[in-house]
Structures are given as C-alpha cells and as structure tokens.
Amino acid sequence: MKIALDLGHGLPRDGGAVGIRTEESLINQVGLLLVEKLKSCNDIILTRPKAASSTKSSLQQRCDMANSRDCDIFASLHFNAFTPRANGVEVYAISKIGYNYAGAIVANIARLGYHDRGVKDGSHLYVLRNTKMPALLIEGCFITNVADMTRFDAEEMSDAIAKGVLSVVANDK
C-alpha cells in the first residue's frame, strides 16, 4: 500500500497553532515515529513541500505529490487548538473509505484516554477535496488543553494512528 503522509504545516510562515506546546513540534515527533511504524509494510510518501509561496501553494503541492505518486490513501497529521476547555481527538474525511480509516484512528486514540469527538465531514478542507484517493485529516488532540497535553505521548499517539491505518488495510484484503 502506498500512503501519502502529510506532516501538516511546517513552513516558515506556517508553523501551525501554538498552545501549551506547538502544533509543529508534535506533528514532527509523531510523524517521524509514524513513518517508522508504517514503512515496514507500506510505501510512505512524505508530502510536506520544502518551500511554498503561499498556504494555498503549499496545500496544492501536497495534493499534487500524492496524486502524481498514485497513493492509496492520504493522511494529514495535525493537532487542534481552541479554548483551554476543548479537548479530544477528531478526524476529518469525505469518502466512505476515508471514514473507515478515520473511525479506526479516532477509536484507537480515544482508547488512550482522549475524548472521542468523532469523525467529521472534511469537505471544507483543501487537501481532502483535492486528492484523488481516500483522504483524512487527523487532529490528534488539543495543544491548548492541559489534560490532553499531560496525557500526550508521541510514541502512544503514533502507535494508535498506525494501528488504525493497518486495521483498515487488513480488513480490505
């Protein structure tokens, strides 16, 4: 299986949200571990561009890379931010297959003790609308919530995401 793994944000003018921790630091920690967990049985395509003139250009480059490599799934990794009371995990998807992956990932992360905010309609998200394959955007937990940040462990989070992806792959065979 060919997986497009998008480590969200990551460009000089777009480091993501800032809370108790920074979104970019959590994305990088979890993303690197996730690559290691998935690469043994999958072809991993990292889609974060090296440079982009705008946010839209960055998003389009990510989609173009996944589309041109004929990936089977596109997964964009993010962490949420809002008021300090907001907490938990949610995953956005559009297609039926995307919802299957999203549901498995949400369930696995929720088992770590995070509030299950469910699978949400991601039709408003550029990277989900502009990829040819099933796509999802993972919001692992809230960087603005003390309980989520106290609970956060990059190894556990990457393991939960990997198990969610691999469980759907196994069921599709």
TrEMBL record:
GO biological process, any: peptidoglycan catabolic process
Keyword Hydrolase attributed: yes
Coiled coil: none
MurNAc-LAA domain: residues covered: 63-166
Record Gene3D superfamilies: Zn-dependent exopeptidases (3.40.630.40)
GO terms under cellular component: outer membrane-bounded periplasmic space
SMART domains recorded: Ami_3
GO MF annotation, one: N-acetylmuramoyl-L-alanine amidase activity
The name this protein goes by in its record: N-acetylmuramoyl-L-alanine amidase
The organism of origin for this protein: Brunnivagina elsteri CCALA 953
